[in-house]
Design brief:
Pfam families: Tfb4 (PF03850)
Strand order of the largest sheet: 3-2-1-4-5-6
Number of strands: 8
Family: Belongs to the TFB4 family.
Radius of gyration: 20 Å
Subcellular location: Nucleus
Number of helices: 7
Distance between the termini: 55 Å
Low-confidence stretches: 267-281
Structural class: alpha/beta
Number of domains: 2
CATH topology of the largest domain: Rossmann fold
CATH class of the largest domain: Alpha Beta
Helix content: 25-40%
Keywords: DNA damage, DNA repair, Metal-binding, Nucleus, Transcription, Transcription regulation, Zinc, Zinc-finger
Oligomer: single chain
CATH superfamily of the largest domain: von Willebrand factor, type A domain
Mean pLDDT: 80
Protein name: General transcription and DNA repair factor IIH subunit TFB4
CATH architecture of the largest domain: 3-Layer(aba) Sandwich
Shape: globular
Length: about 300
């Protein structure tokens, strides 16, 4: 813990998915109120781990992404004063995040058709926030990169995969690799997210699918509280198998078998994964053979 840690948390705040998650017909129902209560305890634990730790929280709402809280921003004037039984820093985090979420939910109103959550927008904002936080933390970052905070991103997902977001997510993954940002994923509700599995694997993070959603805080504390520097000596759980399927560019379907052009490989930027010897990332994948390549004709 000699090095500070910067944590960016991305919350998937789809009203429809959280309504389904809270249904009593589920084996382990989890409402958004219980989710926020356990999440805030985890965020407070991160702040308490080291005084220099920084925190940023982003919300992925239907059709837009919003920064809910940043420890580098000045404290708002309307935050209630801390009482004798609360720590002021914890109260600022709790009040700011909950108020921001409630304001965004009120602004949504009644939607006839809920648009997809802007998870990619929140992810790109989190990557930009990492750079801002690093330079804010150390003006001499170029001369002494060792003093930069250890950056990581935690995504709490409840929505299924959106095949149209395949390319933006992969671009975000490549950016995270260059910035040396670890992406962790906690799948709180819904089926496994194929693209988020790949994001965690390619950046050295952990992907956890909650089997007991009533133990969310225990999952968060045991799996995601430790910074990347400490994970070399801890047995942090990782996924047993990874779904490497891609989305086709013609119909935006996730395919098991894809086709690429034999002349240009349908791409100008191809990433070779040396260990498993495959190159599906960033290739223009078709779900069926096409007579003429749309890239090189």
């Amino acid at each position: 813990m000699e090095k500070a840690s910067h944590l960016s948390v991305i919350l998937d705040l789809s009203p429809t998915q959280w309504h389904l998650s809270a249904q009593s017909s589920n084996q382990y129902p989890l409402s958004i109120h219980s989710f926020l209560s356990q999440l805030l305890a985890f965020l407070n634990a991160h702040i308490a781990s080291k005084h220099e730790n920084t925190l940023a929280v982003f919300g992925a709402f239907p059709g837009k992404s919003v920064m809910l809280y940043s420890s580098t921003d000045p404290v708002a004037d309307d935050v209630p004063p801390a009482d004798a039984n609360s720590y002021s820093s914890f109260k600022v985090v709790d009040f700011t995040i909950v108020r921001s979420i409630m304001n965004e939910f009120d602004a949504l109103g009644n939607l006839d058709e809920e648009p997809p959550c802007a998870l990619v927008g929140a992810l790109t904002k989190a990557l930009c926030c990492k750079s801002i936080s690093a330079h804010f933390h150390s003006p001499n970052a170029v001369e002494d990169p060792a003093v930069l905070p250890d950056p990581r991103i935690l995504i709490l997902s409840v929505s299924p995969d959106l095949s149209t977001s395949y390319i933006p997510i992969m671009n975000s993954i490549f950016s995270a690799q260059k910035l040396k940002v670890t992406i962790d994923v906690c799948k709180v509700y819904g089926p496994d997210a194929v693209f988020l599995q790949q994001a965690a694997h390619l950046t050295g993070g952990s992907y956890i699918f909650l089997e007991r959603r009533d133990a969310l805080l225990q999952y968060l504390t045991m799996s995601f509280l430790s910074p990347p520097a400490l994970r070399q000596v801890l047995a942090v759980p990782k996924q047993d198998k990874i779904d490497f399927r891609a989305a086709c560019f013609c119909h935006k379907n996730i395919v098991d078998v894809g086709f690429v052009c034999s002349v240009c490989l349908s791409s100008n930027h191809i990433l070779f994964y040396v260990v498993k010897l495959w190159f599906t990332y960033m290739c223009t994948v078709f779900c069926q053979p096409v007579p003429v390549c749309s890239t090189c004709r």
